[in-house]
Design a protein that fits this description.
Blueprint lengths: L3 E2 L4 E3 L1 H4 L15 H10 L5 H4 L9 H14 L3 E3 L5 E9 L5 E12 L8 E2 L6 H14 L1 E2 L3 E5 L5 H7 L9 E4 L5 E7 L4 H6 L4 E5 L1 H17 L11 E8 L6 E3 L2 E5 L6 H8 L3 E6 L16 E6 L4 E6 L4 H5 L5 H4 L2 H13 L8 E4 L2 H9 L3 E6 L5 H9 L10 E3 L9 E2 L2
Parallel strand pairs: 6-11, 8-12
Antiparallel strand pairs: 1-5, 2-3, 4-5, 4-10, 5-12, 7-21, 8-11, 9-10, 13-20, 14-18, 14-19, 15-17, 16-17, 16-19
Helix pairs in contact: 4-5, 5-8
Length: 421
Amino acid sequence: MVEVRGFQALRFDASKTGALDIVLTPPYDVIDEKERHRLAALNPYNMTHLILPESRGAETPYENAARLFRQWIAEGVLRPDPEPSLYLLKQRFTDSCGDAFERKAFFALLKLPDQGEQFILGHEHTFDKPVEDRIALMRAVRADLEPIFVMYTDSDNNLANQLFQPMGEQPPLFSASTSDNVTQELWRTPCPDYLGGHFENQTLYIADGHHRFKTASMYRDECRKQQGGTRAPARHDYIMAGFIAFEEPGLKIYAAHRAVSEPFPFNFEECMGRLTKYFDCRELPPDASDKDLDGVEAVCAFIMRTRGRGTWLLCLKEEKRLELLGDDRGEAWRALDVAVLHRGVLSRLLGVGDDVYLIYEKDAGVAATLVDSGRAALAFLLRPTRPEQVRACAEAFEPMPQKSTYFFPKLPSGAVMYSLE
């Protein structure tokens, strides 16, 4: 059963850090090395120093993060709020079409499920290396530094409206414009009694943070073992989460387009000969983009961009889906455009093996440029995965292919933190 509760967050004191615009960041896993160094140079209290730490002298990266975290608390840079609270977040942003949106979310603690409980479902595989990295950081810092992002059901946005209505004209605790061009506003409120009733009998779905969720569960199990297996309620039984409703108008999922890196032995005639058995193929103008997928009625469709051999709209012949994909995966998985692309086109028709590097790019223009410039053999532009597809795959326990979703905006790292001590 879902248990949601308020907590005494650790928050930055802007009077000591300066503007939070250059302190808060996107989550660690969407920050590449170049961006990490740029953000870290902006402010000595930028969150990258904690979530993507570097070694310092004889210190490991994790020891460095732990030292900084405790130092910031001792200096009052990070301060605990006086009482357990719920934290309300408004995010204002412009989507990829240039339309303005506002998204409502809230931060709270979420009780981790015990073995056999299945009220929190994911849609992605997890990998050992990221989990090893995150649990080493959690062991050192002994804090939950970044929330996971979960989706819940809220017909007509009743819960969000109930939570935010009392804020009225009350000014936020802070307003910050982060590096992803999102305006973040945070309020604090007592955790209302009706919150538990809303989540009774609900299932939650992880949008972002699968590795952090697994890390928190492992850390919880380690702590219990060290305490002789006791299950008395403790801080490590909970994970910090940001909650956003499926029905929230600002819930946006972008596609992660794919580019097949060079060198790849791409033979256009042979490729098209294989594709036409399973797809209706139509050449598009040279400047075609993912916007040309808007309004395409085919159940499965994507665009293939080649260098010098045209840009093509590929629409799956529906009667060929099972033949192309096989019957070892469920219907929810077979319904994904990205599953058809990965298993059907890349693996089975083109022979793109695990040794071929795929470039994932949310900007279709950048993906196309990779091909035109010779850095990629070809690119595939996709439609976004829909929220209901995420739910269907999670409920069917059918993990999606890697990077099937890019939720935007991300929840900010550094708005709230949760001490495990």
